[in-house]
Amino acid sequence: MRLKNCYRTSDFRKLAKQRLPAPIFHYIDGGSDDEVTLARNTAAFETVDLVPNVLAGVDEIDMSVTVLGQKLDMPLFFSPTAMQRLFHHDGEFALADAAEKYGTMFGVSTIGTRSIEELSARNDAAKLFQIYVHTDAALTSDLIARCKAANFGAMALTVDTIVAGNRERDYHTGMTTPPKLTPASLLSFAMHPRWTFNYLLREKFDLPNISSVIEAGSKKSYSVVDYLDTQLKRTIDWDDAAAMIEEWGGPFAIKGVMSVADARRCVDVGASAIMISNHGGRQLDGSRSPFDQLAAILDAVGGDIEVIVDGGIRRGTHVLKAMAMGATACSGGRMYLYALAGAGTAGVNRAMGLLRDEIERDMRLMGCSSIAELRPSMIAHRR
User: Fold this and answer.
1) pLDDT at position 179, please?
2) Measuring CA to CA, how many Å separate 104 from each of 85, 148, 323?
3) Using the 8-state DSSP alphabet, how is residue 247 labeled?
4) How many angstroms from the chain centroid is the CA of residue 159?
């Protein structure tokens, strides 16, 4: 598989699998337990059909939306994901560059491999910082202060990781950061020399936003599961969310909301947006997909708060289905992680460019010249 032959997410997935050692690929690719929710996140979009209008006289297409105070040129942005330089040495810089090129927003993870300050200096693309409530309150406050100083436009509190999901693929492959060397993983690293030499000879792997509290990537093996289970406050509650919203003082999303009751509480505590998300099927297996929950949440809080569908996006039509139902925007991780792993910045640019072209082309086919013209009447639910 070559980059020029990649046209859809499944093609980029093949490219990533070809390039990455098995432990690294399966960390991106896998979910929790039996991975039922992982599969459901994308399959849910096939439960509804698009109903286009014709003879609409469509000429220019306006795909722009406003999300968390940011004017975006398209209704899809890069959800924050951890450890990107483990997948390709371009890491978060690839997302920053693609976000600037396509006029969209990129998320930066607390467990990112480029610092808040590096990414602020990179360019003027819209930036969202994803944060947790840590057991060390001073660390949480420090991250917020650094984001303010770096002029990040928005913040998202992830609330569905009070413990790590049961990611059995990682147990089988020995996935840690840095990668644990077992006989099986050594063979896989040897069979992928390009990745291995890049990892060993390029800039040392680091988690700069939290390097003051853990040694991940430096002196010991330390998995994301370890980080989630030891550094995050397990008893996080609505008071914590409200306090963080006040401390941040700007556009603020709560990421990991799935129930109608929680959506209402997000409105009550003053959040700007909800990111309907199950963490890419990596936490509670057997849970609903974000798209499946969209209608109920919109019925409850639509118009009171921005609603973002996070996860499962593989096609431009998936975005249009969510937008027609009333979503503010969509975001995703694997849609670009496979491309990043397979080809770095060039891969992310190609993946996002293809999705942008799909959205524009399909809006023409839907008879819509702007996102606002997508309506629930353009959706038919399958029985």
Assistant:
1) 60
2) 21, 20, 16
3) H
4) 14
Residue 109: which H helix or E strand, with range?
A: strand 105-109
**pLDDT (mean) for 240-245:** 96
Q: Which two tokens stand for residue 96?
A: 């920053």
Question: What are the residue ranges spanned by the domains of the chain?
Answer: 3-367
Active site residue 279: yes
Name the catalytic one among 134, 192, 279, 318.
Answer: 279
The residue count for the chain? 383
Six-digit token string for 125: 């693309």
- Secondary structure of residue 216 in the 3-state scheme: strand
101: buried, middle or exposed (CB in 10 Å: 19+, 13-18, 0-12)?
A: middle
Sign of CA dihedral 60, 321, 284, 276: positive
| Helix, strand or coil, per DSSP, at residue 107 | strand
Residue pair 176/294 in contact by the 8 Å Cβ criterion? no
Q: Tell me, what's the pLDDT at 195? A: 86
From the list 122, 121, 92, 118, the residue with the least C-alpha distance to 106 is: 92
Domain 3-367 matching CATH 3.20.20.70: the answer reads yes
- DSSP code string of 300-345: HHBTTBEEEEES---SHHHHHHHHHHT-SEEEESHHHHHHHHHHHH
Q: Supply the pTM of this predicted model.
A: 0.93
Q: Which long-range contacts (CB under 8 A, 24 or more apart) does 245-249 make?
A: 245/269, 245/270, 245/271, 246/270, 247/141, 247/144, 248/144, 248/147, 248/148, 248/155
The count of other CB atoms within 10 Å of the CB of residue 82 is 18
